[in-house]
Amino acid sequence: MTDSVWLQELTWPDIKACLEQGKTTILLPVGSTEQHGPHLPVGTDTMVATALAETSARETNVLVAPPLWFGWSPHHMVLPGTITIRPEVLVELACDVVASLAEHGFNNFVFINGHRIVNVTWLQMTAERVKNNLGVKVVIFDPAHMSKEFKSGLDWGPVGHAEEIEGSHMWHCYPHLVKMDRAVDNPHRTHKLYNIDPHHSGDTLCYVPSSRTEMQAVADKAGGTVGRPSRSDHEAGKRYHNHLVDRLVAVIEDLQAGRKRTDKGSRLRP
Ligand SMILES: [Zn+2]
To answer: What is the pLDDT confidence band of residue 262, given thresholds at 50, 70 and 90?
Structure first.
């Protein structure tokens, strides 16, 4: 028996043994491959979801499915390296992944979303369908929603793109891939109704699509960044990661216990 949490690193007898021992919960990291400014790799969204999944899986003794490296990213196609998949294709793909795993006995699924609000819509459609068609339990874990309490104590601005939140998290998890000397600040414009950040009191308009023209302007001005990546901090990234792992562990434990998810309060580690 291997001690890997990754499904793709196990043999089928290993997986069969896990299922027979009752390991029927599996995490599904979902991100994107899209431009993340001049300082972060295009795999950032998938990498942060993967890091959260791996740490939490070790703490809860569950498995992790191979990450989904693609998301819906039409607004980032103005810069090279971005791959966008139509949301209807992503729903079909994710439903087939869950159906395959469910057929073999997995019955608790946690989608870990690294691509923020843009992935949420099709993940909700997927979750609804697999729950009702397959009778499995499924939740969507979204770091932007799960970090409201944590962000109150930090000098971070609202969610943008490749900003200090992603910069700090990546700096902690993948320091060899972060090029902070190339980071370009592009502070948020004040918007009365829309901030794409559930923590922000002004985030009331739900969703406003970005046009290619608007994104080209962001690309020209700051290499695709929105926010202040110069505020990225390795230590803050570590605390942010640990906060999210604590929340994710609580979600997994509640899901396995068959209880309705409740807020257990802070279990923050140093
Ligand atoms: Zn991102």
So the answer is: very low
